[in-house]
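Input record, target 12 of the design panel.
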């Protein structure tokens, strides 16, 4: 197992080369605040990334989600970016099957977000159109999880200028939402507000500048969930690190991170991208079990074994 730890400001990002199931077994239980990851697509990009047949995907994933459950704090959240695959003209059910089996593991299927890819190019097949969205499924270990909704509030928008101009009587009733949404039917409470809570649809462009990975998501995607579910100095885990986007987003937001990547070329890419995009000062930190720190200069050939 290869390990390298990179420091950025007051954060540490630990990068591991290897299988996430094996590496996570050495991680303490209840030690991670947030898991954000995009596992290999089903039966796609064989030889480079993925290649798991839809019929085998659930069986392949469950040992991993078992370890995720163990290392995640009771107040933590797991965000899974995953999409279905069309097989023989219809969508395969492995995503729904996976949700069901993860619930049997003890996970709570708490929420589902939609990532709308704003810059997705048009396309079609004989019986369907191109997807311009992907799922981000939220799982938790308990109903009492950490969430900081104010961190992701959005501008109220131009519609409010006309919508709030002439309020009807029904716009002024029921002060409190019965479901805790924050406003309820009393639309008049929106007057003077500059920011409101978002919906569960995220309108974000795909990552066009990152050519080093075939399934990279934009930095803004993990950043949104990191702000929503963690605070500074919390620990974020990406067990399918890819080109390192989650680790980069975590450090830029003042969170510590753990990234695990199975393929050597993506592991090296993640390290390089992290150093370039966080502009670190050439320092690698490794923390021993005695909690003493050794600080050494980064070397392109250096690999620290944990």
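The sequence produced for target 12 reads:
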């Amino acid at each position: 197992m290869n390990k390298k730890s990179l420091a950025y400001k007051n954060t540490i990002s630990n990068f591991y080369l290897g299988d996430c199931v094996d590496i996570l077994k050495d991680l303490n239980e209840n030690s991670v605040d947030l898991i954000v990851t995009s596992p290999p697509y089903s039966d796609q990009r064989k030889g480079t990334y993925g290649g798991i047949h839809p019929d085998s995907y659930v069986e392949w994933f469950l040992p991993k989600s078992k370890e995720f459950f163990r290392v995640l704090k009771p107040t933590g959240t797991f965000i899974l970016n995953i999409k279905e695959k069309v097989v023989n003209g219809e969508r395969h059910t492995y995503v729904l099957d996976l949700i069901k089996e993860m619930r049997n593991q003890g996970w709570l299927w708490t929420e589902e977000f939609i990532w709308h890819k704003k810059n997705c190019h048009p396309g079609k097949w004989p019986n369907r159109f191109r997807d311009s969205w992907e799922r981000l499924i939220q799982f938790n270990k308990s109903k009492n999880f950490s969430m900081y909704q104010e961190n992701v509030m959005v501008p109220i928008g131009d519609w409010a200028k006309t919508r709030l101009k002439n309020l009807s009587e029904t716009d002024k009733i029921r002060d409190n939402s019965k479901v805790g949404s924050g406003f309820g039917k009393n639309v008049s409470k929106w007057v003077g507000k500059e920011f409101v809570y978002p919906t569960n649809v995220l309108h974000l462009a795909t990552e066009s500048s990152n050519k080093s990975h075939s399934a990279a998501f934009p930095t803004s995607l993990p950043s949104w969930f990191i702000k929503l579910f963690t605070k500074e100095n919390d620990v974020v885990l990406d067990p399918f690190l890819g080109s390192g986007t989650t680790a980069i987003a975590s450090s830029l937001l003042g969170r510590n991170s753990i990234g695990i990547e199975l393929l050597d070329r993506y592991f090296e890419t993640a390290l390089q991208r992290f150093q370039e995009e966080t502009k670190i000062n050439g320092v690698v930190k490794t923390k021993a079990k005695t909690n003493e720190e050794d600080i050494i200069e980064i070397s392109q050939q250096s690999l620290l074994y944990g």
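The longest strand covers residues 72-82.
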